[in-house]
Batch of 4 targets.
Target 1
Amino acid sequence: MFKFVILIALNFATTHQQLNSNLKCSLITTTNLKCQTTTIEEINLISPSLRNQIENLEFDFYNSTYLNFTLMQESFPYLNNLTISRGLLSKIDGFGSETTKLEVLRLNKLPIRNLKESFLGSLKQLKVLDLRNNSFHCLHEEKLLKLFRLESIYLSANPWNCSNNLAWIYNAKDLNNLKDINSTLCHKEPFDNKKLLYVATLKHNTSQSCPNNCSCFLTTVTFNAETNKLHPVVQVNCTKKNFISLPETLPKHTTKLVLNNNSIEDLSPLIRNSYYNDVTDLFLDYNQIRSIEVLEGTDWLRHFRILSLKGNFLTDVPTYAMTNALNQNPNVPNAVMLYLSENPWKCTCSFTPNFQKHILVEYGLLIQDLNQIKCAQVKGDPNSLQSIIQLSIQKMCHTPPAYTEKALNLLNGVLGLMILLVLGNLCYDYYSFKKTGKLPWIATKLP
């Protein structure tokens, strides 16, 4: 037994001597080789007899941007476990052969961004793929399918771009082999530090519930400090899609709805349809809207952020209801925007003064097209197509000048005096009749 141990020790010592002294490699065991600041081409200087024994190979800082996997396999035909941590490696080329025995591949802390499908497909015996802490932005769904046979996949700590199509991860969400899926996060805005699978699921659900002919996007996910929950923000765009009414359904969490250039008249779904509960930004430019009275006193009008009604058929708005709603709106003044131009506003004394004073002047900072809000085109009307904010209310309503007012006051005084004289005369005639029995002179002349 003692001789056997001596023989093993002598063999291990001989193996150590076979390592090139210029290489920063060391044998951990007779089958485990660890190298620092080197490449596959350099360790090929090790004798073939030693390389044929290696089952586990670890690079601590791979000192090249390129790895030829075909050469790797030829150099280490019995390699079972390959780990490359840190270094310059950004590209892996070559293929595994039918005899490839590699079961574990770890690529960590590298600038590598992509792996060829042909390379992954050639690793028939692979069970564990660890791609943590690299520079991967996305994987194609077909590429992930190549990995379904694996027992364990690790993808976290990569700069995953969640603005891209995430179908590849959504379709793999039920696979138990994605071991670190709950710690795999999106990188950079608009989804920075949000779970990759969570964003992928939201995107999928948004797409599936999108109205026909419309485009639906998950634009961001914000954190609501009041509810301590994440708040998805979905945008729906149905511009020029021949809608005659607001869509009956919307994706969950729809915040921004764009319905420009359609034929919509009725706004009642905003207050009756629960799909519109989260809609705060509404764009209805160039439709057939003639009134917004249906929104008077509604919760929606008290909480909206953007309301764009350019190019419709509005002639007036309920001024009091609008001012009351804006006074109660918590988004005023920082987040509210109004667009009201290109409507045939009526310019009359009954509407314009209040509209100008209480809407255009008082909330002018919220109105993005203030100077383009104009009177309707009316032939012969001097206010036709004039900017309402610049109108002189005095001139429009013909307020009398000061001298006219004095004349009217004098006339009122004269009329009042004449009334007193008539009443006095009536009293005199009554007194005379009671005393003498004679009728007043004017009464004797009546037929």
Target 2
Amino acid sequence: MDKRLINISILGLGFMFVFTSFLTVSNIEKTVLKSIEKDDPSFTGDGYTSLCIIYGVFALCNWLAPAIIGAIGSRKSIYLGSICYVLFLTPFLWPSNILLYTTSVLLGFGASIIWTGQGTYLTMNSDSSTISRNSGIFWAMSKISICIGNIFMILVLRDKTELNESTRKLVFTVLAVVCGFGTLILMVLRPSVDADGKKNEVSLQKPISVIPKQELRDSMRLLVTKDMLLLSTLFLYTGLHVSFYSGVYSSCIAFTKSIGTDTKQLLGYTGILVGVGEVTGGLLCSVLGKKSERSNSKFNGLSRSTVIIISFFFNIVAYGLIFVNLPNDSPFGDTYTKSIIKPNLHVAVFCGFLLGLGDSGFTTQIYNIIGVKYSNNSASATSLFMFMQIRSSQKLGFPGKTAEVDPHMLAWR
């Protein structure tokens, strides 16, 4: 097997285990912290405050991430970031307000360097003919985590009305082991190589003391270029899209009582279908990438635009179905009203698949663009992508009551 393909496979496998753990935690964090508060009134940690800290620090640290990548390299940045994900699990085993918010800060920092490092490592192990294949393989492998996490929680929480202490310890012990295993996999990442099999790791051209200032200046210059300003629209859209299907849509399902089933359990099945859509999209992009490599066609021009257009079509279809299927007041609280049609659970779950499929098309093509157009400055380009996506997601919100289950899945971006 191609050395670069092995590197990408190891990267995808490590991310799969790390984010199986994190996505499961973010999906139940609010509920878990409430159950801890019932057992220990002195504990007042809030899940939404924790998530706010995570994403706020994540957005700010994206400006520093390129400097860290330049100083210690993409591989060390990836597994240093993954360690932060392991540490984030400690407040759920040993509840503490200070520990919860401290690890939330650490996780925000870790998310910025693990994702910027991932984009850089993916680019360094790819070229214009393999970036589509590699990004598709990585995306499909890493997004299996969504399916695994939702299946795990459906099995563990079946017939349970609340999370008692013994259940919490079981769940988070398993998640800590899974996350730790993913971190060990990422620690054995091999140096990136070029098409000739030669190492092409980031090398320090300047003293470490001047790297942060230089990288920040490079990122600012890149941000104001014409191409990056045009791409910013795409980056912002993906942030809004992910925030919608991982936060708003899940809340709408939970609040729509007229679906006629256990809506909280339906969230798990919808999450699985989102994961199936993500994996399917990644595999399709990988297959198309392999075909383009064999045929030497202009896949990296026309096809990238075509994939984005098709993905946008999937999203529009999903938005339309959601509009006619769920009541207008479903984002704000429990409702028994009907929309244009009677709320249908099969349509709701199918829309989850379409949303995941569309998201995978957008994201894999963004990585393709970064890998081809910004191959010499991938760390700065990836950090700008992460920053804009996070910022746009923070702007999307809705007033009123919030769903008890809060499946925020943006940090795995």
Target 3
Amino acid sequence: MREAIRCVRKGEMGCKKASKLFGIPRIVLKRRVMNSKQDATEDRKVLGSKRPVFSPEQERELVEFILKMERMFYGLTITTWHFSEDWYYGFKARHSELSLRKPETTSKARAQGFNIPIVEKFFSMLKSVMDEKNFPPYRVFNVDETGFTTVQTKSSKVLAQRGKKQVGTVTSAELGVLSTAVICDPPLMITFPRKRMKVELTDGAPPGTIFACNGLGWMQLDIFSSWFDHFLSHVKPSDNDPALLILDAHLTHTKNLEVINNARENHVTLLTIPPHCSHKLQALDLSFMSPLNTFYLAAIEKFLRNNPGRVVTQFQVSKLFGEAYLRAATPTTAINGFKKCGLYPLDQDVFDDTDFAPSLPTDRPLNHVESSNDSETLPVDPVPSTSSDTPNDGSIIILPAASSPQPSSFFTVNLEDISLPPKSTIARSQKRKTGSAEILTSSPYKNQLAQERERTKEPYKTKKKNCPQ
């Protein structure tokens, strides 16, 4: 076969003569002669029936651009540039660093909210309170709320027959009843969606848990105030041993004057995470909530298997939650959560340019009128300017991530000019301003909130918090 291919390629004879001389079917010999793989080299390996459309330099530039777009949350799909499937699979096989993945949805508010000036201001506040009171690690706390239902939102994988189109599992009902848990180590609180409390609802809960009821099962101002009293009874802060509590900017935290006054009187510093940044700066979200939900779903499945014919109701929630909490609440999990988001040990450089890449397409001032479903915060001071190019009109500018000079493109057209998303210029209709991190126990914030309360003379309505199921 090799000799026949050599003779045909050098022109010593045609395919018909070579097939008769070497006893090889002519169609097979012709296919081998025309096979492009015979011309492949180590520098330019050909995978598939066609040669690469681009040069190696152009393909490397294309790979870098694809990865950049993914970091900005505008990843390219197979049909983005209308390449053929034959070229796509060959291109992906030549570059093993690329993989077709299903992305997690991220709201525009989160992509815009987590940016360099906002995060720098948060770490500046955190550093100032740490330097002022020198909190040891066991006096730094993080609190967050999560919702869980009596019906598992997803199920564990089970063994089944290969090729079967649909595999089912039993759930308690079509729709579950939502309850809310306030997570903080050590004090916990569970809120049930009912008007009256029963002692049976507390069976099996983690030690030290307190309980509350309201019509919807959501967090409210008075319920969070009750939890904070529970927090003080466990932590017992004093003038010589103060505590730092880091929490998100939900309405029940930022507008709760009772909690703020109570914290000031009991030597607790309250520091809020900037809005839309909990996925990066909330220690519980990064390390604890995911295993807690996984173990809670496993506890529901275990209950249903061991109790055929029964369903999970509110009276089993505390026991199932307690089983999951004791499995998820480990010291290593807590340490890793605080370390990953740079809260303790304090690390202002924990995030790099790739973490801020999603905010670049929304590069515009942040103190504009904002239409958002997230928590409402008080107006904030502008970030101090450190550059002569920064306007001094009080606006907050998202700075582009620093990067090294890029070489000239190997394409005749710059890929970024034709594929990068345009800057956001959508006007907002609702009168709500974007906030940032705040020290709630500071005198300016507390006085401003008190003045606002006196001016309105109306109780603040509690909004539903978007809790993971």
Target 4
Amino acid sequence: MATNDAPVLESCIPIPIEEECLLEVIEKAKDWAIMHGAAMRSKNNFSPDALQFAPFILTPSSFPRKEFEKAVELQVTLNELMHYVAHDEEFLKETLRNTIQVDAFTGALFEIYETVLKEGISQPLSLGLLRSDYLANFLESNAIKQVEINTIASSFGGISTFMTPMHSFILKELGHADKLVDLPENHALSGLCNGMVEAWKIQDNPSAAIMFVIEDVTYNICDQRFHEFYIRETYPHIPVIRRSLTQIYQQGKLGSNGDLLIDDTVVTVIYFRAGYEPGHYHGPNEWAARLLMERSKAIKCPSIHYHLAGTKKVQQALAKPSILKRFIHEEAKIDSIKDIFTGLYSLDKGEEGAQAVKLAYSNPERYVLKPQREGGGNNVYGVDIPEALEKMNEDERSAWILMERIFPPLSRGYMVRPGGNMPPQIVDLVSELGIFGAIIGTKDKILYNKQVGHMLRTKLSSANEGGVAAGLGALDSPYLID
């Protein structure tokens, strides 16, 4: 929630829009979204045969140009940082030592990590398709601050690529074609897919497939399928298959040379769009499937160590003074990373954790409590933090971190949702920018490292969580302002 005195950024176009015009352009926008795949399956009325448009903001939301450009420029450095973090066995073990005792899910991931370390990692190359998320902080002249960095199932690269063309269409329909110059191009879909293809090429097996690991039921189907369809259209010689963890357990095995075989298909690249939350693992079979993949020679996106590097606990540890020097050696790069960090505090047993608890109790509105989970809807905010902490013992606290709250500026606009009231009201909004990166390398050598695109998710200023897939935010694109 933004504070009451949050400034309002200059709007892309004057609002309100006259009602007749507003209703007409929304009707067109909904149809454009569905017909171009800016759509999802309904969670409330699920049918594999039907789509509804994804929630969207009618006109692009303002975002400070200088901060957008800073985030884009920084992504290659963040890719590098996360790559070296993922390959630092000692750092991961020390950082997650307490967390794995009390967080069963992170503990299960860590067990797989230790197993493959003991056996010897069969595929030294990892593919990272990352997304670093930011809010502008009006308390610091709208400087961007990192909310989190995602190392698994970094979603909405597919649909977000279509948001700028959609907003371009809407602005032209509203007579504001002059604004298109301030909508940055977005090539997230091709950039993420090209990362997968580069990994596939390295394996040098022309008959091998790329495998997408998927949920049992996929609501965010367009976003996933766009990646598959882009690869098939642009690189028709590369097969793409989709399997759930359960199917991988049933159909998968290792070949004599460590190849991953799904029935008779060799898989050389694995792209996880599931496996990031406990609900994806119904029992030992799905965990066995995850271990099978880690033992294989396929390049994983992410490998188990990349997955662990994306935990909130690791993010908190990286914000400690001098830790960055362990991974990045150029002072200018270290300073640029420090610049985006907000306060992150350990809740582990001991003096440091006790001090963080005191901070949370003294001024809970300034903080967010975060667990080791992806997918949205898991954080505890503000006045709810003391009660949440009271229910935990010292050990259980180790599964969480405390993060200073970021106070973003507001924008105003129309949020359009399936089944929403018509005409929609003008609402106060806050936007979260995600920058995508792709990186391939071994522990000692980076072979490929690029910034590949962006996304913007926007939510009501009164909403704490903003996940589109979780039903709490809307897709958007940035309108850059000076």
